[in-house]
Design goal:
- Helix 5 (61-104) packs antiparallel against helix 6 (109-131) and helix 10 (207-331) runs antiparallel to helix 11.
- The chain has 11 helices and no strands.
- Helices cover 83% and strands 0% of the residues.
- The chain starts with a helix and ends with a helix.
- The protein is elongated.
- The protein is mainly alpha-helical and 369 residues long.
C-alpha cells in the first residue's frame, strides 16, 4: 500500500484517540489496551486497516456472508424439524393421557378406537423410518430383522379407521394444545390460575410477546454481562499492573529504610547480647560460689566429725584410767602419806577429765548450731 493510500485510509478512520477507540471497538475479543496501541502506532494502523475486511469475531466479509446464509438455512431446517418434533411429541402426550384416563375412568369406544388407531399409525411410521433412515443415498440400506417397508405397512389399521382418526385429529390436537398452553400460562403466572377461561385466552394471546420480551431482556443482560466481564478483565489487568509498580516502589522504600536503620539495629543487638552474656557470667559465678560453699561445708563437717571422734576416744581412755585409779585408791586407802599422793594424782586426773568433758560439750553445741 502506498503512503498516499495509507494516509487516506487512516484519515477516513480517524486520528489519535479516535483511531485507537475504533480499533478497540473493532476487536473486543483481543486482550489490548489503549496504552498498547499508543506504544505501537504502526500496529494500530494495521489493525485499523484490517478492521475494514473482518468483523468483530475475526471473520472476513465473504466468509461472514456465507456463514449467515448457512445459518439461515440451518434455522429454516431447524424450524421444520421443531414443528415435526413438536407435533410428534404432542401426539405422544395425547396417547399417554389417554392411557392414564383408561385406568381411572371408563372411556367411550369411539374415543378408545381413535387413540388406538393413532398409536398404531405412529408406531408403523416410526418403524418405516427406522427401516429407511436416509433418503440422500441410493445405496441399499441393511434390513432390520429381515423386514422391509411393505411388510411393516401391512400392520396399518383399516383405511376406514384411519380416515375417522384423521377427521377427529385436528379437533383433539387443538384441545390438547389449548390445555397445554393454559397450563404454560398458569406456570408462567400462577396468580392467573383462578381467572376465567376467556380471560386466560386473552392473556394467552399476549404470552408470546411477553416471552419474547423476556428473552430479549435475558439476551441483553447476557451481552451486558459479557461486556462487563471484558471490562472487568481489562480493569483487573490495569489494577495488577499498577499494583506491581506500587509493590516495586514499596520494596525500594523498605530497602532504603532498612539500610538506614541497620546500624541502630546492629548496635541494639550488640547491647542485647552483651547484657545477655553478662547475666550468663553472673549466673556461672553464683553457681561456682555455691559449689565452693558446698565443698567448704562438707570439709568443715568432716573435720568436726574427726575432732569429735578423737575427743570421744580420749574421753573413753580417761574413763578407763579413772576406773583404774579408783581401784588403786580403794586398795591403798589403808596407806597413809602414800594415799595422799595417790589422792592428789586422782584429783589431777579428775580435773583433766572434766576439762575434756567441757571441751566435748562445747564442741557438740557448736556442731549442733
Amino acid at each position: 500500500m502506498s503512503a498516499g493510500a495509507e494516509f487516506t485510509l487512516v484519515s477516513s478512520l480517524g486520528k489519535g484517540d479516535s483511531l485507537r477507540q475504533q480499533v478497540l471497538a473493532s476487536f473486543p475479543l483481543c486482550d489490548m489496551t489503549e496504552e498498547d496501541l499508543t506504544r505501537n502506532p504502526q500496529f494500530c494502523k494495521l489493525l485499523a486497516t484490517l478492521a475494514q475486511h473482518v468483523d468483530q469475531t475475526g471473520l472476513t466479509v465473504s466468509l461472514k456472508t456465507e456463514l449467515d446464509k448457512a445459518e439461515q438455512k440451518l434455522q429454516s431446517q431447524r424450524r421444520h424439524w421443531l414443528r415435526s418434533e413438536s407435533l410428534h411429541r404432542g401426539l405422544q402426550e395425547m396417547i399417554q393421557d389417554h392411557c392414564v384416563r383408561k385406568h381411572h375412568a371408563t372411556v367411550p369406544p369411539d374415543q378408545n378406537m381413535f387413540y388406538e388407531t393413532m398409536e398404531k399409525c405412529l408406531l408403523v411410521a416410526q418403524c418405516v423410518r427406522q427401516l429407511d433412515p436416509s433418503s440422500t443415498t441410493n445405496q441399499d440400506q441393511p434390513s432390520v430383522l429381515g423386514l422391509n417397508t411393505k411388510q411393516v405397512m401391512e400392520l396399518m389399521p383399516s383405511e376406514k379407521n384411519v380416515q375417522r382418526m384423521k377427521q377427529s385429529l385436528p379437533r383433539e390436537l387443538e384441545k390438547h394444545l389449548k390445555k397445554k398452553c393454559l397450563n404454560l400460562l398458569c406456570y408462567y403466572q400462577p396468580e392467573w390460575e383462578n381467572d376465567s377461561e376467556g380471560l386466560k385466552k386473552s392473556k394467552l394471546c399476549h404470552l408470546s410477546v411477553q416471552l419474547d420480551k423476556e428473552k430479549k431482556r435475558a439476551e441483553s443482560l447476557k451481552e451486558t454481562c459479557r461486556e462487563n466481564t471484558v471490562l472487568l478483565l481489562r480493569q483487573t489487568q490495569l489494577y495488577l499492573s499498577e499494583l506491581t509498580k506500587c509493590i516495586q516502589l514499596l520494596q525500594s522504600f523498605i530497602l532504603d529504610h532498612r539500610l538506614k536503620i541497620q546500624t541502630d539495629l546492629d548496635r541494639k543487638k550488640l547491647d542485647y547480647f552483651e547484657g545477655k552474656c553478662e547475666l550468663v557470667l553472673q549466673k556461672i559465678k553464683a553457681e561456682m560460689v555455691e559449689i565452693q560453699l558446698d565443698t567448704y561445708t562438707a570439709d568443715l563437717i568432716s573435720a568436726h566429725r574427726k575432732i569429735r571422734e578423737k575427743l570421744e576416744s580420749e574421753l573413753k581412755a580417761c574413763q578407763v584410767e579413772k576406773q583404774s585409779v579408783e581401784l588403786k585408791l580403794a586398795s591403798f586407802e589403808i596407806l597413809g602419806k602414800e594415799f595422799e599422793a595417790l589422792a592428789e594424782e586422782y584429783c589431777r586426773l579428775r580435773q583433766e577429765i572434766e576439762m575434756k568433758n567441757w571441751a566435748l560439750r562445747e564442741f557438740t553445741q557448736y556442731n549442733n548450731k
